[in-house]
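Open question from group meeting: does this chain pack into something compact, or does most of it stay loose? Before anyone orders reagents, we agreed to write out a predicted structure and look at it together. Recording both the input and the output here so the notebook holds the full record.
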Amino acid sequence: MHLAPIIVFTFNRLWHTRKTFEALLANEGAAQSDVTVYCDGARDEKDAEAVAEVRAYVKTISGFNSISIVERERNYGLAASIIDGVSQTVQKHERVIVLEDDMVSSKYFLRYMNEALDKYAEEDKVACVHGYCYPVKAALPEAFFLQGADCWGWATWARAWEGFNPDGQALLDALQARGLTQSFDYDGTYPYVKMLKKQISGKNNSWAIRWHASAFLAGKLTLYPGRSLIHNIGNDDSGTHAAGTSNYDVEVSATPISLENIEVSASAIGRDGFVTFFKASHRSLAQRIWARLRALFRQARS
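Structure tokens returned:
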């Protein structure tokens, strides 16, 4: 099996970074893997101490075949840092596994990633391998494909990353011109179009929505595991772009994912599972907001 280089993006969250690396080091194949850590620069003096703590910790890490550290001299921001790091890595190595500093992995994460990168290396339809799967209640296939790309513990090849379009407006125009906005939003259950519009207007700087839209418009597929191999511990209000929520919490798989007999086409079962999950998540959010408003109303009257 060909072991792909791993890149990890860090900033100013020491606890999250430590948990990410502790889990990664417990993976099968970690000791044979080459890792590059991108440490973003501080935005201002308030970040400086926390950024320095992360950098000091990263310098103590051992257990991989090799570890290289790139300390950004200025604050790139996550989008620019990831686009630059992925582009540089695939230019040299043709493939890459990508983690951010809040992705706690199953010990089978690297096995799944590397097996999939080998298996679909020459399959032009496949753009991305993803390690996270939503906590869908319905039974899912062992692994399955969906149209588009994803970003919570993922991998790709140089041939697929060439299709990444950073121009959010061009992506939105194409989605609208081709009548794909409803499908892109999982039948209106997840606001991907809204996210893209916010990126265009400067209200977010998401590289991930542009990666997803680029692959979606090209008809490319992402492989998902039926049991999540990643738990995102960043949904705790600690990140720059994520609000606190427990909706996406999962227990990572304690068993490996088999990649046998998977049809290389979008899975109706997988998509229906995601749609159902998104609907339930939004109902849950609406219920929490409504409960809070009622509590405030009762408090105001008392």
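Observations to bring back to the group:
Confidence is low (pLDDT under 50) at residues 239-243, 284-302.
The beta strands are 6-10, 34-39, 66-71, 95-100, 103-105, 126-130, 143-147, 154-157, 221-225, 230-232.
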